[in-house]
Backbone:
């Protein structure tokens, strides 16, 4: 069976990629600075001996390759290690697990909304190329891709939260105390908090998808088989969606596949702007604090997710396009 | 004279591009009788394909048919609603596009694509449609139709794909087929097979056909009548015999003399000097005058009329009466 063969090959391929990436990250971190110095900066009462003790405690006194092997051996027992400072030295897996739900919520909603909005718009725009609608769509998308997400986020907070007396919350996952819940419902409160970050995030990833669908659709609509389908008397909707869109979906699939790889870490800026307790923000904080175990843990997750997403993309490709066979 | 099936008059289809308006089809008039094959001949860019697409109203944007009538069995197709037109396309008039390698959708199987068209125009079950599709593949000379039906276009050769395109065109028993250079993209042996198949099917089904080609050899071999196009206009129309043996338009003469012929053992191949004009700013008067060996002042000043000079015979030239054109293929 070619499918099993394919999966085995992909799994083998994972091995060098995994070691390569983790070792690189491991070394680069240690070139970036000394976390103990950062931790104790400005603390005049901490002596050099105490610093050395801290290094020993974190295992940072050993040579890099030993530290790496130690970390690997722990990893294979399912232990991602403990954070130096984040969460008061909590296990990395717990830290990531706690934040994964918030991140996935934002990311999946953003992806779903942007696809639902972008595909029909892109198709319409391609169908009526050079029309006023098409011009409006392409220009708006251009503006959309050009606006940085932090600017958009801050503007959204300014206009829809600060200036309107808290129409929407400025950030966070939920209200601090239950008596702030709208209609006393915790679910409504969560949804209420989701509106701004999801909208901003959707808008930010919408524009490239619209442009991608449009250009890919234009490419397909020029093909002879579209002309032939039309000449066979098929309904215009059949021509556009059954024959056009299915062929135009292939580039989009690659895009979504890449997106899924970064699913857990993809929105650090949005998360930071909206004070959203997700993995992206955890990652940024860990880098700022040189919290090595957390950085490594997140990198492991990104690597695995990317590889899994690639396999899923390949399988989806073969399903949509019969010319591609997995071998 | 036999009954007229399709009559196109004064058809104009322009393409509105950024560079300007391309007058791709500019006043074409032609006629197809029931059961006959009309050859539509001309160089690349003479408007053959756009004429066929205009008849079916599938001209790609930014093209638009702005004038003319397309009368098909007493109906003016240009006046029909789009929904009515959809029931004519594929059912009464079928189209075989130019390049068989790209006319089938790569992501659906052969069976899917045939069944789709059959079920669009006939109230039949999927099972019946599938059986019909297999029968069609058999009738266009495809071996093992039961296997082919489940295959995808990339698994098939060019010749097989063209046979499938023909099968799709025939699937709803049309009365008119527009075949746009059905053999150009194929190699020579397959070309002969496909032409043979078309001739054969035409005879069996008594379907009328417009065969678009730039190959005079194919015209001589398969067509009853010919319409010669140049730069979006008709040069002349007549029976194949008339046009080949007694061309009335200088362009036809030039076209015929540029056909390589073994029988005549010509040492050098004659060519028509120049190339097809820019159709945004076509030449004044007769569009062929810059390349015509017989042009006079009147040809530069005035566009000639398409003059009827006999039963179903038309010529679009000021000087046809004075000229004594020779036929290179008279044998």
Residues:
């Amino acid at each position: 069976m070619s499918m099993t063969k394919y999966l085995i090959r992909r799994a083998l391929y994972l091995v060098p990629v995994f070691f390569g990436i983790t070792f690189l990250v491991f070394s680069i971190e240690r070139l970036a600075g000394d976390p103990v110095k950062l931790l104790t900066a400005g603390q005049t009462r901490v002596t050099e001996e105490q610093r050395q003790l801290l290094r020993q405690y974190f295992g940072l006194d050993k040579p890099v390759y030993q530290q790496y092997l130690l970390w690997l051996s722990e990893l294979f027992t399912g232990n991602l290690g403990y954070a130096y400072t984040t969460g008061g030295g909590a296990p990395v897996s717990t830290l990531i697990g706690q934040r994964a739900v918030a991140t996935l919520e934002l990311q999946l909603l953003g992806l779903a909304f942007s696809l639902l909005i972008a595909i029909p718009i892109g198709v319409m725009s391609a169908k009526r190329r050079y029309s006023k609608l098409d011009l409006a769509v392409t220009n708006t998308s251009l503006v959309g891709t050009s606006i940085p997400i932090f600017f958009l986020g801050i503007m959204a907070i300014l206009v829809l939260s600060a200036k309107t007396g808290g129409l929407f919350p400025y950030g966070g996952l939920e209200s601090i105390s239950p008596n702030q819940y709208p209609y006393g419902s915790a679910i409504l409160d969560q949804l209420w908090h989701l509106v701004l970050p999801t909208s901003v995030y959707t808008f930010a990833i919408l524009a490239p998808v619209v442009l991608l669908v449009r250009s890919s659709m234009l490419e397909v609509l020029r093909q002879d088989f579209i002309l032939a389908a039309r000449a066979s008397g098929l309904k215009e909707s059949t021509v556009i969606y059954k024959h056009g869109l299915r062929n135009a979906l292939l580039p989009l699939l690659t895009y979504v596949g890449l997106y899924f790889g970064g699913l857990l870490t993809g929105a650090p800026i949005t998360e930071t702007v909206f004070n959203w307790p997700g993995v992206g923000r955890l990652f940024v904080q860990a880098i700022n604090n040189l919290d090595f175990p957390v950085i490594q843990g997140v990198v492991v997750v990104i690597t695995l997710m990317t590889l899994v997403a690639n396999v899923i993309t390949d399988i989806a490709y073969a399903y949509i396009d019969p010319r591609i066979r997995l071998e | 004279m036999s009954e007229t099936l399709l009559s196109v008059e004064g058809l104009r289809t322009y393409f509105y591009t950024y560079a300007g308006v391309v007058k791709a089809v500019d006043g074409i008039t032609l006629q197809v009788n029931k059961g006959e094959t009309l050859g539509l001949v001309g160089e690349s860019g003479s408007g053959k394909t756009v004429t066929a697409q205009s008849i079916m109203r599938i001209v790609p944007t930014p093209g638009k048919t702005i004038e003319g009538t397309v009368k098909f069995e007493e109906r003016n197709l240009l006046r029909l609603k789009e929904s009515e037109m959809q029931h004519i396309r594929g059912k009464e008039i079928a189209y075989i596009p130019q390049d068989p390698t790209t006319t089938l959708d790569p992501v659906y199987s052969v069976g899917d694509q045939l069944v789709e068209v059959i079920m669009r125009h006939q109230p039949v079950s999927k099972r019946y449609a599938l059986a019909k599709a297999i029968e069609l593949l058999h009738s266009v000379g495809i071996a093992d139709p039961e296997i082919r039906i489940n295959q995808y276009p990339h698994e098939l050769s060019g010749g097989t794909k063209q046979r499938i395109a023909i099968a799709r065109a025939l699937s709803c028993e049309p009365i008119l087929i527009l075949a746009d250079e059905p053999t150009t993209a194929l190699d020579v042996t397959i070309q002969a097979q496909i032409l043979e198949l078309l001739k054969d099917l035409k005879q069996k089904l008594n379907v009328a056909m417009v065969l678009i080609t730039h190959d005079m050899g194919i015209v001589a071999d398969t067509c009853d009548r010919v319409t010669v196009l140049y730069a979006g206009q008709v040069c002349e129309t007549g029976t194949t015999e008339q046009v080949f043996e007694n061309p009335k338009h200088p362009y036809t003469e030039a076209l015929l003399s540029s056909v390589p012929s073994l029988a005549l053992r010509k040492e050098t191949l004659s060519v028509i000097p120049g190339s097809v004009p820019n159709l945004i700013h076509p030449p004044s008067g007769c569009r062929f005058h810059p390349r015509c060996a017989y042009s006079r002042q009147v040809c530069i000043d005035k566009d000639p009329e398409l003059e009827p000079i006999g039963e179903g015979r038309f010529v679009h030239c000021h000087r046809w009466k004075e000229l004594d054109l020779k036929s290179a293929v008279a044998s």
